[in-house]
Amino acid sequence: MSPRDEAPDAPYKPSPSWRVIAATAAALSVLAMTACGARPYDPARGGTLAAKDVTMRTVAIADASSLPKVVAAARTLGLATLGSDTDPTAVSSPSSFAVALAMLAEGAKGKTLSDLDSALGASGEDRRDAFAAILSAMRKYDGDPALAGKDSLPDSALIHQADRVVIDTGFAVNDSYLNALADGFGANMQQAELSDASGKKILDSWVKKNTGGLIKQSAIEANDSLRVVLQSAIVFAAKWAVPFLERDTTDRTFTLLDGSKVTVPMMGWNDESAAYADLTGGWVALRLPYSEGAYADLLLPPKGTDPATATADLLAQAADKLAAATPGPTKVALPILDFTGTVDLSSPQTLQALGLGSALCDAPDADLSGIAGSPGDLCVQQVAQQVALHVSEDGTKAAAVTELGMDAAGAAVDPVRTIEFDRPYLLTINQADTGWPLFYAAVRNPAV
């Protein structure tokens, strides 16, 4: 008898062919839930499950002692994903990736948990409180994600983050894990038939809705091995505090890393006030604030330098110097961006470099038994992030969904400063209250 043939009220242990999939992004938890056992499918519950008597915790920024460490860790994660992508423009969401790993950590044990804690910059309640503070700060700007899909940007800044766990009909997941997701991420729970097109349709619909249509479907494919999907999405839409004027957008030359040149439309910003900073290694940085809730830090490296080679320390230096700088009159030339793509993060080299090798299917010590089963029953098999980024005269739209697939074992200021981003540069979009990195883009060739 296969697991799908068992009685619907009988909990069962994952077999070596069962697969768990996760997809990113939200934040955190406050009470350590200790409920034991596994929750089987109960037809009386219908299509939706709920963590009983569990509400998401709220943590103030001032009460999250590990927040700076978690922000620094997210910067490292975001830059690592940029480094793994050699496309003309590499875009990632550090926020989405970090939160996906934080959700995974709630079901990890042993060395797998230790490695995830190291990658996330904090452990236990300190990690949960940091992510809770981050999510609470973003939720001040929550709204209808459909606003990001409209032609014009919303009048008020939008930062929408959504999370849920989708459980295959008949599969048992530990109550403690479901409670942790509700407590830490506010994640609801949905039941679906994940082996066929009906389950895939449910996953696709949720992704499209919670990214405002900027991302059309889930990267997860339904199959007979699929048992759990963690979905988390983030969407951002905001106007510049001082918009660029369309009349100042002109075709200009952009010099690529190899010295060749392309012509791209660049927005012009004349004599407006902006914070500027000189950084180590010949990099320079400029801060362009949005109308509320977020700001964009743009880092221009020396000629011939790949912007994805920036370090977390350099980003921290930029953040500190720009926050302390007195804005001055500045002329800016910045390319228009329109990017949609998928970043494959599943290579062992990428995850090993992040210290996450113990979660992979070829690792002998993979332990995700906090989700279901025993140590070694589940392991990370695929990791992908879908990202959309649109930068125009009015402002910015961006969305991301990260998915983790788990298989069985296995200085003086000039009167007017001119900065032209006419060679490869790094764009970072950050939440204003926490400095939390929402999106990164290493723009190597905006013409492609």
UniProtKB/TrEMBL annotation:
Gene Ontology MF terms in the entry: serine-type endopeptidase inhibitor activity
An annotated GO cellular component: extracellular space
Signal peptide boundaries: none
Superkingdom, natural source: Bacteria
InterPro entries (alphabetical): Serpin_dom, Serpin_fam, Serpin_sf, Serpin_sf_1, Serpin_sf_2
Residues of the Serpin domain: 74-446
Family, as annotated: Belongs to the serpin family.
Record-given protein name: Serpin B
Species the sequence originates in: Rarobacter incanus
